[in-house]
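FIELD: query
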Amino acid sequence: MRLATYNIEWFANLFDKNDALIMDDSWSGRHDVTRAQQVEAIAKVLTALEADAILIVEAPNTGKRQNTVRALQGFAEAFDLRTQRAVMGFANDTHQELALLYDPEVLTAQHAPRDDANAPRFDRSFQIDLDVDATEDVVRFSKPPLELRVQSNSGFEFRMIGAHLKSKAPHGAESRDEAIRISIANRRKQLAQAIWLSRRVADHVAAQEPVVLLGDLNDGPGLDEFEHLFGHSSVEILLQAGLFDPHAVTAHGPRPGSVPSTARFARPKEGRFLEALLDYVMISEDLRNRQPAWRIWHPFRDATCWTSVELREALLTASDHFPVTLDIEL
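FIELD: result
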């Protein structure tokens, strides 16, 4: 089985109010990319992935008239993708939903949220004291993680959690001091979200339920100057909960060499691009004996993506993130 996570930037901008694709020469949310160009690029990437299930991060919106599942299934039908079925969890107010697009001939997936004292349901609030002031912080997800019960056609059942954690970027800051304040507050919230997730993972592990956690964790080494302020990262918290991802282990090792990258952001004022490891597919220890193999579909670092000009250009046009896949015997 091939599982994937893919953050598709401004995907919601490619659908009208009735969830019909907009394929014209108007600009998409991406710089110098039209809607038609981005739609075609996304379709090429999803086709090339040949995944059995793809977590779409920043999926099309669900609102008063729009519906994420309808939009994704319409997209799959338009481009004859075998991942014809979609499922999502709790809608949010950001126009960036979390949804799974999957092949119903290979697996079934059902939204299966949990709620307990150790880790409340993800559309609720979580209280935790992150420092020494003896005052609990109340944390909420702006994008509640997607909890799924998944069963392969062979009968193997596991839990899948799709996540998009809080960004640490100081959006809206108008001064250096404000940027510092916002960055620290965002990192605190992100760490709290990671702890919340780790407790849910721990519950599944204790119940001997295999877990796959995937998505955009908005965390990786070297992303900002405050990463050592709290002593550990969101990724490290999740690894310590009993999860494994080789890219995360490499990047957070004592002496990381070349750090993997899953995203590429333009820095026009600096005349360069910033690369970052943000997207992961983590598995519980009981899945590590099922021949897992990870791959980042990076247009410049993956040999196949580099040599296929059409795929390479599609990856660069479709999003500022690149897909991550996991091949595993389930």
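FIELD: remark
The two ends are 6 Å apart (CA to CA).
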